[in-house]
Design goal:
The strands form two sheets. This protein has a six-stranded antiparallel β-barrel. A two-stranded antiparallel ribbon has the order 1-2. The chain is mostly beta strands. Helix content is about 0%, strand content about 20%. The protein is built from no helices and eight strands. The chain has two domains: about 1-85, Plasminogen Kringle 4 (Beta Barrel); about 90-210, Beta Barrel (Thrombin, subunit H), CATH 2.40.10.10. It has strands spanning about 70, 80, 120-125, 130-140, 140-145, 160, 175-185, 190-195.
Length: about 240
């Protein structure tokens, strides 16, 4: 199933709607075309994850002002588009659309039902190497163990992948965000916050977890779950 984003949130980098006119009503040029304007960088080949289909308005370079396109007017290279904005975040936290599978062990656990832990995200390096499983607590904020950031304290060293089930991150539901800021917890506490470059699009595969109330005490015998990416079978040598 392909997740379609018919409206924009943040800078509209995930917009996949069918608007093909600019704000001044110019028709957009197809992204795969080099006429009337030549552009060798922003093409379906150079940006395969950016949805550069036909001549639809897109934001492959993350322009802060939103989706745009090259135009078919020889006198105007490109223009911004008038694309609809998404309604504010409405999805109730902590309630995925698919019922999670209950396993009995952490070591040697079981494969989860795809997209049943919708707040589980993958922190990766800028070269897409998985580092840690972390938690979406708000469309633009990730809760993370501070030890996951030992490689670097520079936000540009990391990327966050949301809406994925397999660590390879090839599913159409995957959303990718750059890290805008890193906020470390108190000294000695293994906790930190990441601010994403733009809010995540809240869909069935991406829903934040619910945060506990202040001073909540988890009672003895409370059933808990641990999720993440790892081996569920022992390696054989």
């Amino acid at each position: 199933m392909t997740v379609e984003y018919e409206c924009i949130i943040g800078n509209g980098k995930d917009y996949r709607g069918a608007v093909m006119k600019t704000r001044s009503s110019r028709t957009c040029q197809e992204w795969s075309s080099q006429e009337p304007h030549h552009h060798s960088y922003l093409t379906p080949e150079t940006h395969p994850r950016s949805g550069l289909d036909k001549n639809y308005c897109r934001n492959p370079d993350g322009d802060i002002n939103g989706p745009w396109c090259y135009t078919t007017d020889p006198q105007k290279i490109w223009e911004y588009c008038e694309t609809p904005k998404c309604a504010p975040f409405q999805q109730e936290c902590g309630k995925p659309k698919r019922k999670p599978k209950q396993c009995q062990r952490i070591v040697g656990g079981c494969t989860s039902v795809p997209h049943s832990w919708t707040w589980e995200v993958s922190l990766m390096t800028s070269t897409n190497m998985h580092l840690c499983g972390d938690t979406l607590i708000d469309p633009q904020w990730i809760l993370i163990a501070a030890q996951c950031l030992e490689r670097s304290s520079t936000p540009s060293s990391y990327r966050v992948f949301l809406g994925l089930h397999m660590a390879k991150a090839v599913e159409p539901s995957v959303q990718i965000r750059e890290v805008k800021g890193i906020f470390q917890g108190p000294y000695g506490a293994d906790i930190a916050l990441l601010k994403l470059s733009s809010p995540a699009m809240i869909v069935d595969q991406v829903i934040p977890v619910c945060l506990p109330e202040e001073n909540l005490v988890v009672g003895s015998g409370t059933e808990c779950f641990a999720t993440g990416w790892g081996e569920i079978k022992a390696s054989v040598f």
